[in-house]
Write a structure and sequence with these properties.
The chain is an alpha/beta fold. The chain contains 13 helices and 7 strands. It folds into 2 domains: about 10-255, Rossmann fold (3-Layer(aba) Sandwich); about 265-310, no CATH class. The chain has helices at about 20-30, 45-50, 50-60, 70-85, 100, 110-135, 160-185, 200-205, 210-220, 225-235, 265-270, 280-285, 295-310, and strands at about 10-15, 35-40, 60-65, 90-95, 140-150, 190-195, 250. The structure holds nicotinamide-adenine-dinucleotide.
Length: about 325
């Protein structure tokens, strides 16, 4: 149901590759809520993905840009301003990729050329984008710029490789550029730290479906999916969050606030009254613990959708 909370607002959405993409859901939601949008992705993503269908559905121009190229970002900003007839109000940066993870290189044996690429695509691109928007004074006062991050940007985690360092940098750029954008332009800059989500970028990580299952069980209200993230992004684009800036905002069902918790399952529900604090976390540490054995129906659905969407996906990143 639409509440028209983005009525009259205009913005650019990066990173819609296919229907699973968080950016795809955000684009659809923004238009539903009354916004006009411009879509962008790399030439290769336009060729290999289905973003053209989204452009049609949203009645939005599609302008190709590699987010690591300042020239492309300048061209994109100029064309978007031309299309909108002036400044715009919001931007979503939903861009990430690690060649090391894609090629299965562990954190202890990274290729440093790849590492630079990871940082350039997944973090520096956000600085390049902000600097371009700043120099061109392209965003209206009260505007909102959002990038997507993951908890491995601020907590140690095995398996996320050099993307963890890229996300830490992305969050730092958000604070430092956010300070300038706020003081000088009254524009907000935030990151949303999203639950593991079944997308192309997410599903390539080794053990992704098990991670989805584990975090869904640990999070008090379960994982946030791509639609949940789109709702949060829409809210951050809207005037309802006009004083929220320079923040890393968790959209993860409470996962990030937990130190130790019980795994949720039917038995816990039954025993909750009798045996508060019966902590099944030990089970996670037990040799041979497999999340499959504890899988709930909601989660099974998301993991299955992930596998069905990307049956042969290699190692990628979220
Ligand atoms: N899926 C998850 O579990 C998860 C969790 C937390 C954060 N995120 C973040 O959400 C964002 C969106 O990812 P997603 O999960 O929707 O996956 P996705 O694969 O649908 O989106 C990633 C996008 O990045 C684009 N991209 C890659 N290199 C680019 C470049 N050089 N220039 C411009 N665009 C480029 C891809 O074309 C793709 O559209 C990423 O920043 C990702 O790290 C994802």
């Amino acid at each position: 149901m639409s509440h028209n909370i983005l009525k009259g607002k205009k913005g650019i959405i990066f990173g819609a590759l296919n229907e699973q993409s968080i950016a795809w859901k955000a684009a659809v939601k923004a238009v539903e809520e009354g916004a006009e949008i411009v879509l962008t992705n790399t030439a290769m993503a336009v060729r290999l993905g289905t973003i053209k269908e989204l452009a049609q559905q949203c009645n939005a121009p599609l302008i190709e840009a590699d987010a690591t190229s300042v020239a492309d970002l300048e061209n994109l900003t100029d064309k978007a301003m031309e299309h909108f007839g002036g400044k715009f109000d919001f931007v979503l940066h939903a861009v990430g990729m690690s060649p090391n993870i894609r090629k299965g290189k562990p954190y202890t044996d990274v290729n440093y050329d790849f590492f630079f690429k990871t940082l350039d695509i997944s973090a520096l691109s956000f600085h390049k984008l902000l600097q371009t928007l700043y120099k061109k004074d392209a965003v209206n006062e009260g505007g909102s710029i959002v990038a997507l991050t993951y908890i491995a940007g601020d907590r140690a985690m095995l398996g996320y490789g050099d993307m963890a360092d890229a996300k830490a940098m992305l969050q730092s750029v958000t604070r430092n550029f956010g300070l300038i954008m706020g003081r000088e332009r009254k524009v907000r800059v935030n990151t949303i730290s999203q639950s593991p989500t079944a997308t192309t970028a997410g599903s390539g990580i080794a053990g992704m479906s098990r991670m989805l299952e584990f975090t869904d069980k640990i999070s008090p209200i379960g994982n946030a999916d791509a639609e949940d993230c789109a709702d949060y992004i829409t809210m951050l684009f809207s005037d309802y969050t006009r004083k929220v800036t320079m923040q890393n905002l968790y959209n993860d069902g409470g996962f990030s606030a937990i130190f130790l918790s019980a795994l949720k399952n039917k038995q816990d529900e039954h025993t909750a009254g009798k045996n508060q604090g019966s902590c099944r976390a030990q089970e996670f540490g037990k040799a041979g613990w497999r999340p499959e054995a504890h899988r709930g129906p909601a989660l099974q659905g998301q993991a299955d959708r992930s596998r069905a969407a990307h049956p042969a996906s290699g190692r990628r990143q979220f």
